[in-house]
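Recap slide: Nucleotide-diphospho-sugar transferase domain-containing protein, sequence and predicted structure.
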Amino acid sequence: MMDNPLVSLATISLIFIGAMLLYQGFSYFSNQFILFQKEPLYNQSNFTNNVEACGDTLDCALAKASMEKKTVIIAIVNRAYVEQDVESETTMLDIFLASFWLGEGTRSLIHHILLVAVDQIAYDRCKFLKMNCFRLETDGVDFKGEKIYMSQDFIKMMWRRTQFLLEVLKHGYNFIFTDTDVMWLRDPFTRLSKNETEDLQISVDAYLGDPWLERHPINTGFYFVRSNNKTISLFEKWYGQKDNSKGKKEQDVLFDLIRSGIIRHLGLRVRFLDTLYFSGFCQDSRDFRAVITVHANCCRSITAKEADMKTSLSDWKRFKKLEANSSVSPKWTSHKWCKQSWGRPLKVKD
């Protein structure tokens, strides 16, 4: 029985059209594959152009980390804060970042942290963690090892930090500066004043009951500052005292400036933060249900800070397991490692 000639013709036509479509499709994907092979995975010239488009590299780093109203979170790290030694199970940076995971409403804030690395190892670690990173170059000074509290290298590093933060203000950015020995257990922006006439809100080692009292023992390990002419002038005058303050760290110099009336002189509004919310090892928060941050202050070495910070995070985790309506009032475990750090020989991280 012979096939219908019309059916045979239709079949041949379909086969021909299908072959043409396959050929065109193969040619298209072959060309795309060739183009893909020729296109570099990382275009350095594009990156350079992007940097130039937004100013210097600091401009780009700040813009990338910024939240609304040009506000960033800044922390400064060196090798001693990011690299484990042989006997360590963790690092200061690990504990700092863990607090954002364990805190209430803090996880998204990690995207707005700019980690400023003062040595290459710290920068490499930051990039490995896929965070917002900035490499702070300092000619002729090695900041990679642990800088013991009040040593000459410690004082130099604190002044370099102040100089860098002045540059951030000049770039028009507000920022929270935080040491990496500060654990973020709740979102500080929920408690910090939103009044834009308040220029500086700064933590203290001990709260004296009045947020405007200028004799508070300030702590420059955590503060929120708005960029304006007044705060830029403050930081300029502060950094300008660097060479006239032998034996003093930058925190002491700022305290002296406040005591000498610089707040009134510059027309600043400065709020001193209550340790009920912004606490530390010097003065624990009285209330787990109110605490925002916990700073491992009044402590002399990184090893001691790490040990007591891990214990405090364990206290926090135990609190979080309590029922919402629990009447239990938990207490912080004594910061024994930090207390002992003042009287025992120190083991220094390289």
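The domain at 57-340 is CATH 3.90.550.10 (Spore Coat Polysaccharide Biosynthesis Protein SpsA; Chain A).
The chain has a mean pLDDT of 84.
(End of recap.)
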